[in-house]
């Protein structure tokens, strides 16, 4: 009975050391995070602006002014 316990402990120890050897020592295991920055499309921005107006978060004047600025900016970027 104790023979089997000793063998089981030795097998678990060997298995643990094998796993430890796989993950450690010398190799660079860090994951580099790349940041992706995406800007919403003009259509999405206009939808969001429209939703803000409909919900009452902005006035009609603010809506019209911001909408026109967005369209003007898009026109300038298109020409470049």
Short key terms for the protein model shown above:
single chain, 80 residues, mainly alpha, 3 helices, 70% helix
Total of helices: 3
The total of beta strands comes to: 0
The residue ranges in which pLDDT falls below 50 over 5 or more consecutive positions are none
Distance between the termini: 83 Å
Mean pLDDT: 78
Could you tell me the strand content as a percent range? under 5%
The coarse overall form would be: elongated
Order of helices and strands: HHH
Class based on secondary structure composition and strand pairing = mainly alpha
Helix content: over 70%
Rg measurement, Å:
31 Å
Query: Largest sheet, described in full?
Result: none
Explained architecture:
The protein is mainly alpha-helical. Helices cover 70% and strands 0% of the residues. The protein is built from 3 helices and no strands. The longest helix has 22 residues, at 2-23. The protein is elongated. 0% of the residues are buried.
Write a short abstract of this structure.
This protein has 80 residues and is mainly alpha-helical.
Describe the protein's topology.
Blueprint: H1 2-23, H2 42-55, H3 60-79
Helix pairs in contact: 2-3
